[in-house]
Amino acid sequence: MKAGLSRLYDLQPDPYDITQHRFIRVCLFRDVKNAKELGAGVRDGQFDAALIRPEVVLEPFVVLAAANRAVHQAAHNRLTTRSLSAELIYSLSPNRNITDSLRTFGIADTSQNLLVAIFHDESGEAMKKMAKLIDGKPVPLEELGQVVDIRAVKRVYKLTDAQMTEEDISGIIVSKLVAKDYMT
User: Fold this and answer.
1) Residue 75: helix, strand or coil by DSSP?
2) What is the pLDDT of residues 28-37, one digit of tens each?
3) Domain locations in the chain?
4) Angle at CA 105, nearest 5°, toward 102 and 106?
């Protein structure tokens, strides 16, 4: 994997609580040919990474908002799932159904593109190891816009045509992610 293809982000959902400070490294892969094996590896616990369908991720900001939520939940011992990586995928969903969240946002056997997110990978070593397992091409995160399926994003987040004309669609999506904790 070429240097500079993955991005490291600094997360701190609560600036007054340093226990929540984490890092997350994100990388986009295209033309993935072994999605079925990768999905099995995640389910078997062979590696701790969030393998996300990039088709339903509008932009990296949405992933970072979900990652901040996951870190916050972990810091307060309120994980809904078994791991921080699974919590990230769950946090991308606007609903509270874990199975549906993992099915919608997690890797599928037929996935050809993949957004990989790994917590606690400041050095990039975990992403390098993960990249060796992926039969696909790592590409700059800027290519995410070429992979996104706007119709799928609209369907998953139940966005109206009026909302789709808004300037800040990501803000609307993040609002839906936050609101799920308060909806019954």
Assistant:
1) helix
2) 999 999 999 9
3) 6-179
4) 60
Q: What is the pLDDT of residues 48-58, one digit of tens each?
A: 999 999 999 99
The CATH number corresponding to 6-179 among 3.30.2380.10, 3.30.300.20, 3.50.70.10, 3.30.1490.100 equals 3.30.2380.10
**DSSP per-residue codes, 98-137:** HHHHHHHHB--TT-S-EEEEEET-SSSHHHHHHHHH--SE
The residue written with tokens 């993960």 in the block is: 130
In DSSP terms, which residues pair with 23 in a beta bridge? 10
Q: How far apart are the first and last CA of the chain?
A: 44
Six-digit token string for 148: 């996104």
22, 34, 182: which is closest to 118 by C-alpha?
22
- How far apart CA 144 and CA 30 sit, in angstroms, is 10
Cα angle 126, 47, 67; round to 5: 70
| Backbone dihedral angles phi then psi of residue 50, each to the nearest 5 degrees | -90, 115
